[in-house]
Amino acid sequence: MRIEIYTDGACSGNPGKGGYGILMRVPEKNYQKTFSKGFRKTTNNRMELLAVVTALEKLKSPENDIHIYTDSKYVADAVNQNWISGWVRRGWKNVKNPDLWKKFVELYQKHKPQLHWIKGHAGHF
């Protein structure tokens, strides 16, 4: 089954107040659900990554065709440009948000999602 996940993260000030939003859709079942959460002190990149990690944590089966759409070059390029393998090889040295990246790698290996970068605020939804 194809599952489409749209994520976004933001904050006011960097660090500052922030949060994330997630829209998960299963087109063939005409199903969708949203999730969001706010934080008092965070960064934009942390919220972008936390949105993806949280969405992957909500998946029940690793047998689905997962497509994640994000406007974060930080997240999309880490996967699509294979930055993560270098980070792992170097033991996460000088990587921001290593706690979330480690969790992401675990979930990525389980669910094998495709990440798609989309331009933010371009009327996708």
Automatic annotation (TrEMBL):
Pfam families: RNase_H (PF00075). Keywords: Endonuclease, Hydrolase, Magnesium, Metal-binding, Nuclease. GO terms for molecular function: RNA-DNA hybrid ribonuclease activity. Gene3D superfamilies: Ribonuclease H-like superfamily/Ribonuclease H. It is an enzyme of class 3 (hydrolase). Monomer. Residues 1-125 form the RNase H type-1 domain. PROSITE patterns: RNASE_H_1. It catalyses: Endonucleolytic cleavage to 5'-phosphomonoester. This is ribonuclease H. Its EC number is 3.1.26.4. Its cofactor is Mg(2+). InterPro entries: RNase_H (IPR050092), RNaseH-like_sf (IPR012337), RNaseH_domain (IPR002156), RNaseH_sf (IPR036397), RNaseHI (IPR022892). SUPFAM superfamilies: Ribonuclease H-like. Belongs to the RNase H family.
